[in-house]
């Protein structure tokens, strides 16, 4: 089987995991070891968290990471797992639609078969969201690049209306329709877990809906009953892991004890897990 055939098979398998009522659950990873741990726990696919990945590479989140650095990290992840991998590419690591196409080609070269492409803007003085037409062009460029490579890349159009306080259900549905028409395969709406809102989004979006979860959100079962097709932990696992590091550091430095470290992944087990990824 050629590399393209393997990518195509993986992409098709990833598409098939998006089932309303039986959602794909993604525990987002940020490096090779977290990806292996997630896979070993039984995950059907691995998705990266752009925030966790940026932090691990010494950068802040919010479109500040160099594309080459980001995709080198994605390549390290795809090299150690057998399940499909989706890469969070923020706003495409590019100033224009043509550059988004270049990024998608690099994503495929890194071995990933899905992307999150967001519509938020982070430049000083810019609005909270990229203009609808411009973002649709970027989605279309991602689709065209994948199609030219003959890989059915899953393009997950992230809409930050709720997250950035830039609109509600009506504005989200308008953007979702435009992005799906431009070639997106699914829609990711972080920032709301309200059941009535999620249900309205499920009913109004003609494609798989992805919801971001964390402490206080409805359970996977509850979201499945609403018709959600994909559930992501986002940066919350990375945040929890780094909070553990801070607690352990403070305990060691302040009291000289080690109770925070109780229950950690044992050295031999983790080392063996990574040895099987060699």
TrEMBL record:
Gene Ontology MF annotations: methyltransferase activity
Keywords assigned by UniProt, alphabetized: Methyltransferase, Transferase
Keyword field contains Methyltransferase: yes
Source superkingdom: Bacteria
Keyword Transferase attributed: yes
Gene3D superfamilies, sorted: Phosphoenolpyruvate-binding domains (3.20.20.60)
Signal peptide: none
GO biological process: methylation
Pfam families noted in UniProt: PEP_mutase
PANTHER family linked to this entry: CARBOXYPHOSPHONOENOLPYRUVATE PHOSPHONOMUTASE-LIKE PROTEIN (AFU_ORTHOLOGUE AFUA_5G07230) (PTHR42905:SF16), PHOSPHOENOLPYRUVATE CARBOXYLASE (PTHR42905)
Protein name: 3-methyl-2-oxobutanoate hydroxymethyltransferase
